Every structure is written in C-alpha cells, then in structure tokens.
Amino acid sequence: MVERAEHLTQAQKAELESELAELEGPKRAEIVEAISTARGFGDLSENFEYHAAKNEQGLLERRITILRDRLHRAVLVDEEAAAASTVVAVGSRVTIEGDDGETMDVEISSVGGVSPESPLGKALMGTKAGDEVVVSAPQGEWRAKVLTVGRPS
C-alpha cells in the first residue's frame, strides 16, 4: 500500500495534534475510569455500562490511530509561497460559481474543509481564477467556474 502525503497548514497540523493530546490524555483516563467503575457493578456478561465503556474505548483508540497516521503522513504546506500564488492548493479559499448560477466559498483542506482528495477538491487543485472545471461527483458531473482564489484570513 502506498502512503499518501497529507498536506496540512501549520494551523491544521496543530489542530490535529491538540485533538490527539486530548484523546490520549484526559479522554483515555476518563474511559479507563468508566471501565473500572462498571466492573464494580458485578457480572460482566450482563453489565451494560461495562460493554458501553469498552465500546467507547475501542472507538477512542481507533480515532487515536487515525490521528497518529495522519500526523505521520503530514507534509507542511509552505504558506508564504501558497499565499503569493494564484493557483488553488491546500489552504486556498476558493469562490466558485456552479452551472446553476449559485456561488460557493470553499477552503481546500483535509481538516474542516473540502478535501483535496474529494471530487470537488481534485477538480479545483491547480486551477486559477477564470478557469472552468468539471466535477465528477457520485451523483453525476457538474461544471463550475473559479471566480477567486485566496488564502483564509
């Protein structure tokens, strides 16, 4: 399996690191305490609180694994170079106009925005203001025009 780089701004990387620290610290301790408390309720085979806490622990550990993987694959975006560029890249804020006349502002980001791996993100990456794009989405293709390319303030 080929490892895909995850392009992040410094702020996006810090956000993921903060979430990971919260999950590995206080959240993990909270779940360990919940499991310990539930064990004291008796027979584990019929102990709903114990099974719920163990399930929550599994979900937490999965999220921790995902965050560690994303941070391991993280490649920091040169934000100064990106800000000087007029080309859509990770960290760009883009205004597009769909073929229906509706405008939409999106940020290309794998943390809280339009992923560069999504159909819209793939269509926008590398474009400039004035370019026309075709988005191949699961519900069908649609066209859009790139109106502006900038950086989040």
Structural summary, described in words:
There is one protein chain. The chain is an alpha+beta fold and 153 residues long. It has four helices and six strands. It has helices at 10-39, 48-72, 79-84, 119-124; strands at 6-8, 74-76, 93-98, 103-107, 132-137, 140-150. The strands form two sheets. It has a four-stranded antiparallel sheet. Strands 1-2 form a two-stranded parallel ribbon. A hairpin with a 4-residue loop joins strand 3 and strand 4. Helix 1 (10-39) packs antiparallel against helix 2 (48-72). The two termini are 37 Å apart. The mean pLDDT is 88.
Order of helices and strands: EHHEHEEHEE
Strand content: 15-25%
Query: In terms of quaternary structure, what is this?
Result: single chain
Number of beta-strand segments: 6
Q: What kind of sheet is the major sheet? A: 4 strands, antiparallel
List the helices and strands and how they pair.
Elements (H helix, E strand, L loop, with lengths): L5 E3 L1 H30 L8 H25 L1 E3 L2 H6 L8 E6 L4 E5 L11 H6 L7 E6 L2 E11 L3
Parallel strand pairs: 1-2
Antiparallel strand pairs: 3-4, 3-6, 5-6
Helix pairs in contact: 1-2
Summarize the structure.
With 153 residues, the protein is of the alpha+beta class. It is 44% helix and 22% strand. It has helices at residues 10-39, 48-72, 79-84, 119-124; strands spanning 6-8, 74-76, 93-98, 103-107, 132-137, 140-150.
